[in-house]
Amino acid sequence: MQYLVSVIHDKSNSGTAEEARAIDEFNNRLRAGGHWVFAAGLADPSTSTVIDGRGEEPVFTDGPFIEAKEHMAGFWIIDAPDLDVALELMADGSKACNRRLEVRPILDV
Amino acid sequence: MVASLAKRFGDLDIAEEAAAEAFATAVERWPADGVPPNPGAWLTTTANRKAIDRIRRENKRHDKHREALMLTDDAPPEPLGAIDDDRLRLIFTCCHPALAMEARMALTLRLVGGLTVPEIARGFLVQESAIGQRITRAKGKIAAAGIPYRVPSAQDLPARITGVLAVLFLVFNEGYLATGPDTDPVRADLTAEAIRLTRLIRELLPDDGEVAGLLALMLLTEARRPARVSAEGELVPLGEQDRGAWDAALIEEGHRLVRERLDSGVAPGRYQLLAAINAVHTDARDARDTDWSQVVALYDQLVRLDPSPIVALNRAIAVAELDGADVALAIIDRLGDALNGYHAFHVTRAELLRRLGRREEARAAYDRAIALAGNTAETAYLSRRRDDPG
After folding, report:
1. Domain that holds residue B52
2. How far is the C-alpha of B299 from the C-alpha of B308, rounded, in Å?
3. CA B49 to chain centre
4. Residue B279 counted as domain residue
5. What are φ and ψ of residue B212, in 5° steps?
6. Is the pLDDT of residue B80 over 70?
7. Are B145 and A84 a contacting pair at CB < 8 A?
8. Which residues in chain A touch residue B147, judged by CB atoms under 8 angstroms apart?
């Protein structure tokens, strides 16, 4: 199964150099274990734009789509056979990036 | 059977329904065809077939994947020992930390305990539809999020067992001191089910000290149930209970478990200490014979494991017996900030103030306790204490 792991953060400052090093190390372990799919950090939520293409003409508005105290600062997509493996791996991921994480399964298509 | 089907097919709904269909088929066929030579194996085989039929019929998105799995899983029905392993897996799945605590309790009672949805709803005083939804949602999450049917790795096992025991202890407590007005103060169906499931876990994990500790704690608590509510429906405090009405067999079993843990020489965990405290209480023929220094010593150990204000409050109650109400009251008044919303804090304060002859303050504390208490028998007892001049 694949899981989206969102990094939950309540401030818009970026991580420290030490956190970045820890994340790199953690990512190398994910690759070595065959769990790596993709990961990225995200720019500040104030830089986002919301698209609504459900009508005839698409409407673009200043984001984020929801005002929240916490937002997604980055994410991983990992491959794990089940939730227990995903949770065990990402407990270390949370330690590495020093943030809380949310793990959510990706629907397979 | 549900457990082994769940493991094989990775889907609780399919497992439950296939098991039910197999029993229904048996009821239909056995009277006419005669009982097969090995009824258990017959049921398992039938349920397996029903499950496969169901999966084919439902033609789910994961159909191909499941069928591929089944094609490679040609193992014959598993021997009896493996059924226990399946039950253990099921318990760990139902008590998975990724599920909400309420969902864990409902799911465990439904799938491991075999209680019906109406029974669970009565136990927790919740609408049937709410319990049904809770269970459906939890099953949905188990399937969609990939919560595995597996006994956790050795590294995770202690934490996960703690999680399972927490679920069972909550179920027991809900039965033992039922919250909410208009209900029976003690709901024996829930306490009995919690004990049954804890016994099962002890059979499956006989070397785990905390499992033994929780079982002992439940047995020693349950043993006092006959003396716990008076004929008038009031809660009877430990010191005033008719000890002759206690269940001697349960006490004997609880004491045996506590002795076994003491003999093991392994440092006790929280449940073992609570069980030991209960063993001291149930060891005294008369409340006046209680070895309070032993109780305080056990609470001292417990405070080191769990420095929560609630443990400190319970320790203070024992201190009152050993060193006097004034010493205990001084300890308790330091806990006021943390426990102001907790009815037992005000009950304890009221009792100590009463003993010290500070009647006005005691009365105010009883009022506060009554306002916060949810249990009918407890409210009745507290109202009488408040108004009793003695």
Report:
1. 1-78
2. 12
3. 35
4. no
5. -60, -40
6. no
7. no
8. 82-84
pLDDT band at B181 (very low <50, low <70, confident <90, very high): low
Domain count, chain B: 2
φ and ψ of B246, to 5 deg: -65, 150
Cross-chain Cβ contact B148/A1 below 8 Å = no
Of B145, B153, B156, the CB nearest to A83: B145
The rounded mean pLDDT for chain A is: 90
What does the domain layout of chain A look like in residue ranges?
A: 2-105
Per-residue pLDDT of chain A (109 residues), as tens digits, is: 999 999 998 766 667 899 999 999 999 999 999 999 999 988 888 888 888 889 898 888 888 877 778 888 899 999 999 999 999 999 999 999 999 999 999 987 6
Residue A90: list chain B partners with CB under 8 A. none
Coil/strand/helix, residue B62: coil
Chain A residues touching B153 at Cβ < 8 A: 84, 88
Query: What backbone phi and psi angles, to 5 degrees, belong to B235?
Result: -70, 130
CB atoms within 10 A of CB A99: 20
Contact yes or no for A105 and B144 at CB 8 A: yes
Domain CATH number, residue B313 = 1.25.40.10
Last residue of a domain, one of B44, B78, B112: B78
Structure tokens at A10: 């309540």
Q: Which residues of chain A lie closer than 8 angstroms to B96, CB-CB?
A: 83
Domain range A2-105, CATH class: alpha beta
- Phi, psi angles (nearest 5°) of residue A74: 175, 180
Interchain proximity A84–B156, CB inside 8 Å: yes
Report the side by side order of strands in the sheet with A100-105.
A36-41, A71-79, A2-9, A100-105
Nearest CA in chain A to B153: A84
